[in-house]
Design goal:
Oligomer: single chain
Number of helices: 13
Structural class: mainly alpha
CATH class of the domain at 32-163: Mainly Alpha
Shape: globular
CATH topology of the domain at 32-163: Glycosyltransferase
Radius of gyration: 20 Å
CATH architecture of the domain at 32-163: Alpha/alpha barrel
Order of helices and strands: HEEEEEHHEEHHEEHHEEHHEEEHHEEHH
Number of strands: 16
Length: about 400
């Protein structure tokens, strides 16, 4: 297995020399000033009927952070893309909010207002503001927050997933990414406006998303936040358990001193422990796609993003001196660079695998880079000294 020092070096070299250059060069359409959604394994763009706002915003945020971190400088390209996004997606059909996707001719494609996509454009503006100091980006973010309230606000707390509403199902996932966006905006601006919104999402999650019996965070609910399926049969995605655990801990760091901080950190630890116990393969530490709150495995296939979220959380715990089996990180890193991002793809990745390690897709989705860079960023924050301290403590 890869030791931690080598793990840090591998990640840094792979990002700097392969992954980030691949997507800023071959993954960027200079004729449209927008990012491609997919590449073939040979690095050729896969042309799609529409380009989603979510993917554009994720790429902007990733390249802004990479520039800030001194890992890869494609900042001008990312900011140019953000300016184009603002022109093409924000209210371009004459209505409030952001359209879901853009047609090939540059006109609105799918005009649905999607909460998940709105969360990511907020995330993109947060990191663009941190990079440039351009106050217009914060102003647009605040306007978007108010538009989210206007468009998506639902009875019984939280938000609808989309407008027009395709169904009455409430999903935790877009709320998770809203929390992420609000925390990023608070981090870069110190404006309590965003922390107040983050606090509301945290309260909603604690009240409705986490099953009190199992400690699992469920995916789907009805309009009153009642789980959709009978007890023990609800979908749980271990990757989301790890994302929420990371976010709850990040919230406590940014909102330091709040009265319920200790309780929230216990919830975060519980999500990590539960996800590790029931949501990962005991022999490989691969994170399953889905289980139930009773621990039954629903989908044994694996995607790249849950693996990166597990690594990100493991590193956060190491950094914070929390109990963490460092061997899990070594196992994950080894399998990441063997199965998901092998050298033959020159900075690319395999998004989805069968339980026995066979590829399930024949392209590379751009959307994975956001998850990958998030993990790499956390790995970079853990010093070798911190990891050695964990070894000495037997963590």
């Amino acid at each position: 297995m890869i030791d931690f020092g080598l793990c840090k070096t591998l990640w840094q070299d792979w990002l700097k020399e392969s992954a980030l250059p691949l997507w800023s060069q071959y993954g960027f359409d200079r004729s449209r000033t927008l990012y491609h959604e997919r590449l073939t394994f040979e690095g050729t763009p896969v042309l799609l009927p529409e380009l989603r706002l979510m993917v554009q915003a994720r790429q902007v945020a990733t390249y802004c952070r990479a520039a800030l971190d001194g890992v890869h400088d494609a900042a001008e390209q990312a900011i140019d893309c953000l300016e184009e996004i603002g022109r093409r997606y924000h209210g371009s059909d004459g209505e409030k909010g952001w359209i879901f996707s853009l047609a090939p001719d540059g006109r609105p494609g799918n005009r649905t207002r999607d909460l998940y996509a709105h969360a990511f454009i907020l995330f993109g503006y947060a990191w663009a503001y941190r990079l440039t100091g351009n106050g217009t980006y914060l102003a647009t973010a605040r306007q978007t927050v108010l538009e989210i309230d206007l468009i998506f606000k639902a009875e019984n707390g939280g938000y609808r997933d989309a407008m027009p509403t395709p169904d009455m199902i409430r999903r935790q996932n877009p709320h998770m990414h809203l929390l992420e966006a609000y925390l990023a905006l608070f981090e870069v601006s110190s404006d309590s406006f965003y922390l107040d919104y983050a606090r509301q999402i945290v309260a909603l999650a604690l009240k409705h998303f986490i099953d009190p019996g199992s400690g699992m965070l469920l995916e789907y609910f009805d309009s009153k936040w009642i789980p959709l399926q009978p007890a023990g049969q609800n979908r749980v995605e271990p990757g989301h358990l790890f994302e929420w655990s990371w976010l709850f801990t990040e919230y406590c760091t940014l909102a330091s001193g709040e009265s319920h901080e200790d309780a929230l950190l216990r919830v975060a630890d519980g999500l990590f422990q539960t996800g590790s116990r029931h949501g990962t393969a005991p022999d490989t530490a691969d994170v399953y796609d889905a289980i139930t709150e009773s621990g039954t495995q629903l989908e044994l296939s694996t995607r790249i993003w849950p693996q990166t979220e597990f690594m990100r959380l493991l590193c956060q715990r190491l950094k914070n001196g929390l109990p963490c089996d460092r061997r899990l990180l070594s196992m994950q890193a080894t399998r990441f660079f063997t199965l998901y991002a092998p050298a033959r793809l020159h900075g690319g990745w395999v998004d989805r695998l069968t339980p026995d390690g066979r590829q399930l897709v024949d392209y590379m989705p751009a959307s994975s880079l956001y998850h990958i860079y998030g993990a790499a960023r956390e790995i970079a924050r853990v010093s070798v000294t911190q990891e050695q301290t964990a070894v000495s403590a037997g963590l």
